[in-house]
Specification:
513 residues; OB fold (Dihydrolipoamide Acetyltransferase, E2P); 4 domains; 12 helices; globular; binds S-adenosyl-L-homocysteine
Length: 513
C-alpha cells in the first residue's frame, strides 16, 4: 500500500532515531514518528513521504510504552528543547550510550566486542532537572500586546510565554517576572523582530551553582533603559524577599549557601540579527562578572568505584556575560575529572589542550602536569583563559589564539626545522613538539583533518578526546587509530538530561609503546 501525506496509520515503535524520534514500520515502510517513545503503539499522521520511508507525528498514544513518563513541562512538544522528556531518565541514558556505541561501530569501524570491553557505563545526573546554569529568554509581545518572555516555539520565532522552564535554574522565574513587571510599570517596550523596533530583546540569567552568584543581563536595542535604577531596586528587593525560600538555597557540598544577585547589566545590541548578545556590556549594579568553581573529583574506592568524590583541588572561573562556560556544572566536573584521569598525569608531562575555550580543561590539566599549551580560535576566550590562570595562581599554562588546524601544523613545521638546523634541542621544546598528552574538545563538526594529521606526527603517548558529537568522534577516532593509536577506554557523561545530546570522553594510547 502507498501512503500519502495526512494519512493516519498505526505504528509499533521499535527504535529511537538520532533526534529522539520514534522509529517503526507500517506496511513495510519505515516511519520516523515525532513524539513517540520506543515501545509505544501510536496512531500517527504522516507529514511527509519519501520513496522508502516517511515522517509522521503522533496523534494519539494507543498503548503507552513502559518507558513513557509524564512530562514535567506542558510545553515540551512545542518547545523542542527537550526532545525526550516523555522517556524515563534511565531509558534516556541507555539511548545515549547506545547512540555512541552504534556510531563507534558503524562509522568508526570498531568491533562491537572492543567497544563493550573499553566503554565504562554512562554517567547520569543525580537530578536531571533545573541543571542549566545559563538561560537566554527572548522577550516580545503576544497577540494581545501583552509583554511576554519564554521560548521560541520549535523552528519559529514565535514566543511562547513560559517563565518556568524545567531545565533552567528555579529562581529564573522570579527574575523573569520581576523584569516583566518593571517593564510594564515603566512602559518599557519589547523588541519586535519584524519591525526592528522596541527595546528589550532578551534576558540572560547565569547562576554560579557552586558560588550562588547570579547575573542578570538585559539585551537591549538601544543604549539605555528607562529608569534603570528601578530595575535594579526591584530585582534586589525581590531576591531579598525570597532569600529564605528553598529554591534560593544551594547545597554546596559541605554547606548550604544563599543564592544572591550580584551583577545586573545591559548588553547593547542594535543590529537586526539572530545573534543574541551585543558586544558592549554596561554594568548597572554590582560586579561585572560572577565566579564559579569546578571541583576536581576522584573515583570513590571499593564498592563505590563508579561514584565520584571531591578532592581538595578546584579551579575557579570568572564568567562575564559574554564568556562561554559549560551549562551543567556538576556533570562538567565529572567529565573533566575523567579527562584528567585518562590523561594519566604525574607532574612531569607536557600537554596540549586543543579547542580550549576559556581554559577549563587546560587549568584542570595544569594542576597535575608540568606544562600545558592551550589553543582556541576565539580571542576573548583566550583572554578569559589567561585571566582564569592568574586567578588560580597557575603559571604553567600558555595559550594561543588561532585555529587548531593552523596553529599546530605551523608550530610543528617551524619547530622541526629549527631542531634540524641546531642538531639538538632542549627538553622543553622537545616536550612541546612531542608532548605526552594531547587533549581535544572540538565543536560538533569534530577535528579538521590537518589537525589530526599533525597530532599523529607529534606522536603523543596518549590522546584524550572529549566530544559532543558521536558521529564526528567516531570518524576522527578511525583516522587516529589507523595512524597508530588504540582505543583503550571511554565513557559517556550526560550533560543534557531530557535532550538527545551526549558528551563522550575517550582515551587513545600509542600502539608501539
Ligand atoms: N574545552 C572548552 C571549550 C570546548 S567548546 C570548555 O570546556 O570550556 C569548543 C571550542 O572550540 C569553542 O571554544 C570554540 O570557540 C573552539 N573552536 C571552534 N573551532 C575551532 C578551531 N578550528 N580551532 C580552535 N578552536 C576552535
Amino acid at each position: 500500500m502507498e501512503f500519502k501525506k495526512n494519512d493516519l496509520v498505526e505504528v509499533e515503535i521499535e527504535d529511537i532515531g538520532q533526534d529522539g524520534e520514534g522509529i517503526g514500520k507500517a506496511d513495510g515502510y519505515t516511519l520516523f514518528v515525532k513524539d513517540a517513545v520506543i515501545g509505544d503503539r501510536v496512531l500517527a499522521r504522516i507529514t511527509k513521504m519519501k520513496k522508502n520511508y516517511g515522517y509522521a507525528r503522533t496523534e494519539k498514544v494507543l498503548t503507552p510504552s513502559s518507558f513513557r513518563v509524564e512530562p514535567k513541562c506542558r510545553f515540551h512538544r512545542q518547545c523542542g528543547g527537550c526532545q525526550i522528556q516523555a522517556m524515563s531518565y534511565e531509558r534516556q541514558l541507555a539511548f545515549k550510550q547506545d547512540k555512541v556505541r552504534n556510531n563507534l561501530i558503524r562509522i568508526g569501524g570498531f568491533p562491537a566486542e572492543q567497544i563493550d570491553a573499553v566503554m565504562e557505563p554512562i554517567v547520569g545526573m543525580e537530578e536531571p532537572w533545573h541543571y542549566r546554569n545559563k538561560a537566554q529568554y527572548p522577550v516580545g509581545c503576544d497577540r494581545n500586546g501583552r509583554i511576554v518572555t519564554g521560548f521560541y516555539a520549535g523552528r519559529t520565532h514565535d514566543i511562547v510565554a513560559n517563565t518556568d522552564c524545567a531545565l533552567g535554574a528555579p529562581e529564573n522565574r522570579l527574575i523573569l517576572e520581576t523584569v516583566l513587571s518593571y517593564m510594564e510599570e515603566n512602559n518599557v517596550t519589547a523588541y519586535d523582530e519584524k519591525t526592528g523596533k522596541g527595546l528589550v530583546r532578551h534576558i540572560l540569567i547565569r547562576t554560579g551553582f557552586a558560588s550562588g552568584e547570579i547575573m542578570v543581563c538585559l539585551v537591549i536595542n538601544g543604549k539605555k533603559l528607562p529608569a534603570e535604577e528601578k530595575l535594579v531596586e526591584k530585582l534586589r528587593r525581590a531576591a531579598e524577599k525570597e532569600k529564605r525560600s528553598s529554591y534560593m538555597r544551594l547545597d554546596a557540598g559541605h554547606e548550604i549557601i544563599e543564592k544572591r544577585i550580584v551583577s545586573i547589566s545591559v548588553s547593547i545590541n542594535t543590529e537586526r540579527t539572530n545573534v543574541i548578545m551585543g558586544k558592549e556590556i554596561r554594568t548597572l549594579w554590582g560586579q561585572d562578572a560572577i565566579e564559579d568553581t569546578l571541583r576536581i573529583l576522584e573515583r570513590g574506592r571499593g564498592a563505590e568505584k563508579t561514584e565520584f568524590v571531591p578532592t581538595d583541588d578546584a579551579v575557579t572561573f570568572r564568567i562575564s556575560p559574554l564568556s562561554f562556560y559549560q551549562v551543567n556544572l556538576r556533570q562538567t566536573e565529572k567529565l573533566y575529572s575523567l579527562a584528567l584521569e585518562y590523561a594519566g598525569l604525574t607532574g612531569k608531562e607536557t600537554v596540549w589542550d586543543l579547542y580550549c575555550g576559556i581554559g577549563t580543561i587546560s587549568l584542570f590539566m595544569a594542576k597535575k602536569a608540568k606544562q600545558v599549551y592551550g589553543v582556541e580560535v576565539v580571542t576573548q576566550a583566550i583572554e578569559d583563559a589567561k585571566e582564569n590562570a592568574r586567578l588560580n595562581g597557575i603559571t604553567n599554562a600558555e595559550f594561543y589564539v588561532g585555529k587548531a588546524e593552523e596553529v599546530l601544523p605551523e608550530f610543528y613545521e617551524k619547530e622541526t626545522e629549527l631542531q634540524d638546523d641546531n642538531g639538538k634541542s632542549d627538553a622543553d621544546s622537545r616536550g612541546k613538539l612531542h608532548p605526552d598528552v594531547i587533549v581535544v574538545d572540538p565543536p560538533r563538526k569534530g577535528c579538521d583533518e590537518k589537525c589530526l594529521d599533525t597530532m599523529l606526527k607529534m606522536q603523543p603517548k596518549r590522546i584524550v578526546y572529549v566530544s559532543c558529537d558521536p558521529a564526528t568522534l567516531a570518524r576522527d577516532l578511525k583516522v587516529l587509530c589507523d595512524g597508530g593509536y588504540e582505543l583503550v577506554r571511554g565513557r559517556c557523561v550526560d550533560q543534557f538530561g531530557q535532550s538527545v545530546h551526549v558528551e563522550t570522553v575517550v582515551l587513545l594510547q600509542r600502539k608501539d609503546m
